[in-house]
Amino acid sequence: MLQTVDNKETSLTKTNTEMQTKAIQAQAAVFMAKQFPRDLHTADSKITNICKSKSLANIALYSYSRGNQIVSGASIRLAETIAQNIGNFQSGATILERGKGWTKVESWAWDVENNNFASRVFVVDHVRETKKSNTGKIELTSERDITELILNMAARRRRACILELVPFYITENAVAECKKTLSKEFSESPQEQIKKILIKFSEIGVTKKMIDNYLKHDIELINEEEIINLRGIYNAISSGTKSREDYFVFEETKTSKLNNAIAAEIIEVSHAN
User: Fold this and answer.
1) Does the pTM exceed 0.90?
2) In which band, very low, low, confident or very high, does the pLDDT at 188 lie, cut at 50, 70 and 90?
3) Cβ pair 82, 47 in contact under 8 A
4) More confident residue, 106 or 63
5) pLDDT tens digits, one per residue of 101-135
6) Which residue, 178, 158, 166, 172, is CA-closest to 239?
7) CB–CB of 104/123 below 8 Å?
8) What CA–CA distance (Å, rounded) separates 73 from 118?
């Protein structure tokens, strides 16, 4: 019993020491940020210059619906790039608590120079949504799968925290520059662009027919803006920000149609009784 008490006291002392160390580190970071303030004009130029990279531009945007329009926003990768280059800025994710089948996480961003803080606290259930299960979910037991899920969910919230604190015009300039970078590829063969799109979407279970239905025309007639939007949609789905069903209609299989028909008959019989 005494040993247990000693362990608790030791653990408590360790926690207090860690908190004091973090507080000292935070004070030092704020002091240094005040001594060496960022130059937003220089940071903006540096970030837009980085956005001229095709490798970044390809993963920098994600597309989402706003009313009847599809608009592009900064992906987590672009948000991370902005945070790394704006100066006096930190972001990350911290596991707060873990239980059986769930993990409580905090994603955060800190503008050290202005001492502004943004965070999102959320609970990640250790399950993956799927249509292959009767419940629509599969319980994750592999630590690797659980970690991947947590990182994915944390990244989405961290993106929101970063963009909440970064000046709006810097994000908008970065998005615009990435679009310019992508548009330069259209000097290449349109057929090659279409081929790349179809290959990428096939990897996440989206067919040409689904894309045609989304575009409301054959992909062979695609224009520059639609290609950029499709890339953004792919980034949104592959990063977990959005699901395939947010954009594409999945036709029911014969099995699901049969199950629906059987369910309808059961309901009909129960009403009759």
Assistant:
1) no
2) low
3) yes
4) 106
5) 999 999 999 999 999 999 999 999 999 877 665 66
6) 158
7) yes
8) 19
